[in-house]
Specification:
By secondary structure, this protein is of the alpha+beta class. It has a single domain, classed as Jelly Rolls. 21% of the residues lie in helices and 28% in strands. The chain has three helices and ten strands; from the N terminus they run βαβαββββαββββ. The longest helix has 19 residues. The structure holds fe (ii) ion (FE2). The site of fe (ii) ion has 4 residues, from loops.
């Protein structure tokens, strides 16, 4: 008998946002009227996003409070000891997308303080109409450089499965390492899709002092 097992894992955490209803209401009351008034600030992709110029930024303090409990639970689950002094920096933005919106493959690596994790909260998401985030194996370029064939039909198992689409629903938060490439496929639906994304930098309190 030959056993096969993965050697290492790429972690992904998924859970319900504890303040989902409050955050959704805040977005509907505060951001949606601005979007209705001004239209997309990234017209080429039919997107209204505070990641790009022309849409108001989110208040980092307010959103840190919204997600404080969830981030605490996540850090606990990820093995960040409560008995050590961790410093956490968060950076939030929103994406309101309509038909034709998409996001190319990217990761969230960046400095000067390294971004440890990236997160997405599906604030307004209809799983019968909207598509979730697509993830790409971080080893893809290495594996493709070693592939024994370019013919899919003959490709052995160890050289397959470079992409994964997560099953998510409204209210879910996903958190994953910042180095994992991901994208959003072109939206077919005319129905508004809203996400709040954030970067999490977490490091020893003394590391940058
Ligand atoms: Fe992203």
């Amino acid at each position: 008998m030959i056993y096969k097992t993965p050697l290492f894992e790429v972690p992904l955490y998924k859970f319900k946002a504890s303040k989902h209803a409050e955050i959704k209401q805040w977005m509907l009351d505060t951001v949606c009227p601005e979007f209705e008034k001004n239209g997309p600030n990234e017209p080429s992709r039919n997107l209204y996003s505070s990641y790009f110029p022309g849409a108001p930024k989110l208040d980092n303090g307010l959103f840190s409070n919204f997600y404080a409990k969830d981030i605490g639970s996540f850090l606990d689950k990820a093995g960040f000891s409560k008995f050590h002094q961790w410093q956490t920096k968060l950076n939030f933005w929103y994406n309101l997308s309509l038909e034709g919106s998409y996001q190319e493959v990217h990761d969230h690596l960046g400095g000067p303080i390294p971004i440890s994790y990236a997160a997405v909260h599906y604030v307004m998401f209809d799983k019968t109409e909207h598509v979730s985030t697509v993830f790409y194996n971080p080893l893809e370029s290495i594996l493709k450089s070693l592939q024994p064939t370019t013919t899919d039909q003959f490709r052995p198992n160890d050289f397959r499965g470079f992409q994964k689409v997560l099953d998510v629903e409204e209210g879910d938060i996903i958190i994953f390492p910042s180095y994992v490439p991901h994208s959003v496929m072109t939206q077919i639906s005319k129905k508004l899709r809203i996400t709040v994304s954030f970067n999490i930098s977490v490091y020893e309190k003394s590391a940058y002092e």
